[in-house]
Amino acid sequence: MNRITNQFSSIEQVTDQFYRQKSVKGPGGTSDVSFEEVLKQKQSDSDSQVKFSKHATQRLTSRNISLSKEQSRRLENGVKQAGDKGIQESLVLVDSLAFIVNIPNKTVVTAMDQTETLSNVFTNIDGAVIS
User: Fold this and answer.
1) Cβ distance 96 to 104 under 8 Å?
2) CA 74 from chain center: how many Å?
3) Does the predicted model carry a pTM greater than 0.85?
4) Where are the beta strands (DSSP E) in the chain?
5) Dihedral angle at the C-alpha atoms of 104, 62, 54, 121, nearest 10 degrees?
């Protein structure tokens, strides 16, 4: 069989080329890392960080609210404290900022600053943390 330039003459060559390019390597360049280990690592990484819903992100942007690293750390600490107490939906106060957080998902549902909370009434929460 004649080989055409830059093409393979057999399916075995294509398969070999494909598998060499797609081989899964672990962090050290070896393939001995199990799927279970990778999954656990990814879950522990994501479990430690608070996420912001699309709605909360829009609220932060529209209200010109930005969090410092210290405030972010305190928000995460407040979410952890709420989770430790078994709270499901929490109000977390950080300085003059108020966050409604779904604790099991570690997701900020909405955010506001002190000027937005004129009535100071928060509904659909089962706990509050001042952080």
Assistant:
1) no
2) 17
3) no
4) 51-52, 89-94, 97-102, 107-113, 127-130
5) 30
**Contact (Cβ atoms closer than 8 angstroms) between residue 59 and residue 99:** no
Return all residues near 98 (Cβ < 8 A) that are at least 6 apart.
91, 92, 111, 112, 113, 114, 116, 117, 122
Each residue's pLDDT, cut to its tens digit, for the chain (131 residues) gives: 555 555 656 777 666 666 665 545 555 555 577 877 777 777 666 556 899 999 999 999 998 888 999 999 999 999 999 999 999 999 999 998 999 999 999 999 999 988 776 677 888 999 999 98
Torsion 63-68-69-70 (CA) sign: negative
Structure tokens at 38: 């990778």
Q: Which two tokens stand for residue 39?
A: 């999954």
Residue 19 tokens read as 């598998």
- How far is residue 36 CA from its own chain's centroid? 19
